[in-house]
């Protein structure tokens, strides 16, 4: 949107009423922002200007300073913060962190962000919906470098095997919107170095023109998975822009956050030698193999092994950085452990990461290792138990069972037909078949040639008569198309109860309607899907809301009940289900029939 220079149509000051309206809209758009945060980007006593662009964008700026907020459709509701606003209030938006600083050179060149370029945090893949604003950060730098809109929800992303476009970038560091500020700056002296890290695989400004051209061609294919293409993202132009960025750096810094200061113990842990880091890596791997990795979870992607199992096993206060080890890369470290015989690992050429296939529990290192028993302090233990009994007691997930359509694919790769698979595991099956049969198109590595078995598995019975069958499919569509041909099931786990049912997960319905004049009644149904007892919940709600409650069997649905609650408690009831029963918000549907 701001890639090319555009002349502003009009600039005007906002009136007091318009500033208040903008502030209210910003508060709704950024609910995590405090009043102090809003004061930082929209000062109450400062003048706010509105600039209108020919491309229908509206930009709100502090007069004489920086643009702070903009929207892309001239309606004023879908607001986005600029990078200047995010440098003042970094937590204004949730942020994706890039896997490496080298990917950032394409993001600040105008390319969209793809899922393979995102680093998955230790706590797991974040939850988000399609159309939400998110920021982009580089490792080791709290200053966001871009703002974009999510193209799909986290559920859809996991179904697609974390492939495809994650974020459509609408504004980035060094675009025309950034350049329009009266006092352009970057937040700290090392900002550029954090963004474009020095890497022998990428272009260096000290290289000769010939060597630069060869390096760019050699690395172009490997970068496509991490960033999207851009019509203005010419490699030559990007190199020139990258060189220009270094000239604009000065010594301004983000506001310091005392909470991020390191304790003496943490500083001591940061000074580990290469040998100590190697030893700590091996110890964390063995601890994970003993305590958290189960055979049914294999094969497991290396990124999942690292974020969900290795990092949680590190000692408190320790930052474990694979780049500071002698191996430098996670893939090389896992391959070295595979060579030693401790684990069995193989590189996935399509996902470009190492997959953990098996564990040798008879290996001398495994046998000799004694896992640590980590004892929590009483207060922390009680807190953990409380959290477990509230929000973590429910687990809900969609799983897939092989159907007759995909049976030849499972048989070809010797996969279990009776097993239930997650979305990522099912996608791995079809990609294993592609690798085994060597079906990647030689002239276009992003596409897969369909042989007879794979074509029937994906399209037999789904193509209208007289229509030609496809001969190839894009990799980003292969996983989702394969999942659509499998039987959808869902698993619900609450405490010791575990149920697997056929079909997609059904939602809980909460509906408020008027009864006998102006009285309100709230109806709650669909509890059985989440292993909740209607009678027990009715008794609980009676005490919580101090009102009359009852249960009744749904007409025509034997064994399914609804809870009737006197009064319009629709919002409080939904919050109670989320906070005390761990029901995800996306599985709760709310209907208020009392509003006219």
From TrEMBL:
Keyword Coiled coil carried by entry: no
Keyword set, alphabetical order? Cytoplasm
Basic and acidic residues bias spans:
253-270
Is Cytoplasm found in the keyword set?
Answer: yes
Quick one: where's region Disordered? 202-271
The segment(s) forming the SUI1 domain are: 508-581
Q: Which domain of life is it from?
A: Eukaryota
SUPFAM superfamilies named among the record's database cross-references: eIF1-like, PUA domain-like, SWIB/MDM2 domain
Task: Give the protein's recorded name.
Answer: SUI1 domain-containing protein
Q: Which organism is it from?
A: Urochloa decumbens
Provide the taxonomic classification. Eukaryota, Viridiplantae, Streptophyta, Embryophyta, Tracheophyta
């Amino acid at each position: 949107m701001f890639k090319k220079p555009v002349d502003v149509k009009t600039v005007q000051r906002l009136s007091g009423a318009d500033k208040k309206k903008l502030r209210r809209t910003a508060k709704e758009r950024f609910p995590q922002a405090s009043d102090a945060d809003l004061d930082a980007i929209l000062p109450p006593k400062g003048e706010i200007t509105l600039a209108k662009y020919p491309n229908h964008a509206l930009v709100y700026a502090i007069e004489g300073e920086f643009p702070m907020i903009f929207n892309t459709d001239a309606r004023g509701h879908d607001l986005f913060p600029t990078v200047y606003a995010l440098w003042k209030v970094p937590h204004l938006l949730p942020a994706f962190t890039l896997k490496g600083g080298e990917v950032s050179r394409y993001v600040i060149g105008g390319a969209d962000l793809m899922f393979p370029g995102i680093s998955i945090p230790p706590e797991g893949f974040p939850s988000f919906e399609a159309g939400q604003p998110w920021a982009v950060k580089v490792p080791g730098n709290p200053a966001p470098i871009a703002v974009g809109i999510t193209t799909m929800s986290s559920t859809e992303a996991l179904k697609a095997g974390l492939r495809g476009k994650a974020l459509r970038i609408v504004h980035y560091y060094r675009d025309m919107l950034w350049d329009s500020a009266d006092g352009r700056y970057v937040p700290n002296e090392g900002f550029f170095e954090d963004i474009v890290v020095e890497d022998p695989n990428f272009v260096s400004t000290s290289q000769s023109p010939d060597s630069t051209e060869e390096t760019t061609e050699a690395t172009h294919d490997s970068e496509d998975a991490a960033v999207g293409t851009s019509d203005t993202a010419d490699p030559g132009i990007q190199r020139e822009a990258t060189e220009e960025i270094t000239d604009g750096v000065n010594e301004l810094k983000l506001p310091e956050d005392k909470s991020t200061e390191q304790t003496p113990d943490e500083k001591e842990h940061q000074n580990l030698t290469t040998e100590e880091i190697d030893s700590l890596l091996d110890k964390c791997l063995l601890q994970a193999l003993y305590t958290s990795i189960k055979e049914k979870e294999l094969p497991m992607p290396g990124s999942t092994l690292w974020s969900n199992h290795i990092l949680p096993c590190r000692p408190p206060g320790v930052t474990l950085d694979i780049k500071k080890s002698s191996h430098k890369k996670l893939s090389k470290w896992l391959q070295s452990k595979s060579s030693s015989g401790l684990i069995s690992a193989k590189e996935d050429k399509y996902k470009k990461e190492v997959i953990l296939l098996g564990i040798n529990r008879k290996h001398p290192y495994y046998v000799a290792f004694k896992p640590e028993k980590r004892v929590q302090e009483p207060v922390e233990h009680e807190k953990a138990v409380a959290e477990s009994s509230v929000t973590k007691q429910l687990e809900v997930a969609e799983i897939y069972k092989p159907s007759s359509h995909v049976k030849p694919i499972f048989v070809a790769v010797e996969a279990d037909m009776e097993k239930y698979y997650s979305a990522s595991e099912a996608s791995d099956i079809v990609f294993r078949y592609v690798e085994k049969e060597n079906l990647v198109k030689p002239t276009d590595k992003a596409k897969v040639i369909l042989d007879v078995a794979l074509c029937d598995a994906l399209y037999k019975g789904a193509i209208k008569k007289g229509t030609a069958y496809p001969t190839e499919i894009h990799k980003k569509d292969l996983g989702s198309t394969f999942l659509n041909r499998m039987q959808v099931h869902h698993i619900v786990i609450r405490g010791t109860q575990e149920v697997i049912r056929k079909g997609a997960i059904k939602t809980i319905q909460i509906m408020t309607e008027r009864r006998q004049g102006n009285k309100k009644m709230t109806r709650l149904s669909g509890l059985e899907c989440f292993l909740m007892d209607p009678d027990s919940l009715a008794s609980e709600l009676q005490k919580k809301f101090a009102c009359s409650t009852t249960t009744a069997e749904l007409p025509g649905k034997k064994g399914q009940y609804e809870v009737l609650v006197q009064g319009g408690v629709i919002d409080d009831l939904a919050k109670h289900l989320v906070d005390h029963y761990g029901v995800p918000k996306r599985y709760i549907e709310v209907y208020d029939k009392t509003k006219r």
